[in-house]
Amino acid sequence: MPLGSQSVPSFARILVLVVFVAACSAPAAPRSTTDRDTASFAPDRGAFTLGPNDLVHVSVFGQPDFTPPATGVRVAPDGTLSLPLLGAVPVEGLSAEEARRTIEAGLERYLKAPSVSVSVLEHASRRFFLFGEVQEPGPYPMDGPLTALEALSFGGGFASGAKRDRVALIRPHGEGELEVLTFNARTPGPDGLVQVLPGDFLFVSQSGAGRFSADVLPYLQGFGFTLSQLSALALAYDRLYND
User: Pairing between strand 167-172 and 178-183?
Assistant: First the structure.
């Protein structure tokens, strides 16, 4: 959903003002606020474990009464999957294969040598955030590994005035810790093949000046980010504009 269609409550406006003032008064921050270097250029499905709101298809071979609908079952907010016979099965943090083994182990109490298949129809719990000078900013679900350049394509193209030669990938590592990677999307090279991980932010700057504090922070606040996290994002982003 475009940022302009979001309603911003008064407390979020106050938060934006506080963060904006803090960003303007603080000394210039380095691009990263952590020494961690997690950039990877090899596809890795290890981050794509099950989480709340993922859509999962479960099939019990030869047992239609114990098989959920073919349209799939959503993982509940508490990380469980509601299945016939078994009830709520904890699956959060498990791979599809690990979930399959867990379900089979539970069914062994009722069936002889059950055979189960588990496939993920939608990884709704795993998403990245694309903001800045793109046509369609917002959060996007990740069904598998993506490079930074592939992730950019979700935004429907660059907006007029986008600073394409210095796109930022910002990766939170906890309270106030951010790893910032930059790449050139104007003349794509190997740096644009860095893997995007769930929870990453991609920012496309506007040449000259940006409106990060006014447009993006209220949106992120709605996703539950803390004041410290938002302040760190503001500092990192303003640094990118001013370099």
Answer: antiparallel
> What does residue 138 show for φ and ψ, rounded to 5 degrees?
140, -175
- Give the C-alpha separation, 241 to 150, whole Å: 23
Local confidence band at 197 (pLDDT 50, 70, 90 cut-offs) = confident
Where residue 76 falls among pLDDT bands split at 50, 70, 90? very high
CATH of domain 55-122: 3.30.1950.10
Q: How far apart are CA 6 and CA 57, in angstroms?
A: 33
Burial class (CB in 10 A: 0-12, 13-18, 19+), 53: middle
- Residues of the chain within CATH 3.30.1950.10 domain(s) are 55-122
| Architecture of the domain made up of 3-45+126-242 | Roll (3.10)
For CATH 3.10.560.10, the residue range(s) in the chain are: 3-45+126-242
Contact partners, residue 69, CB within 8 Å, separation at least 6: none
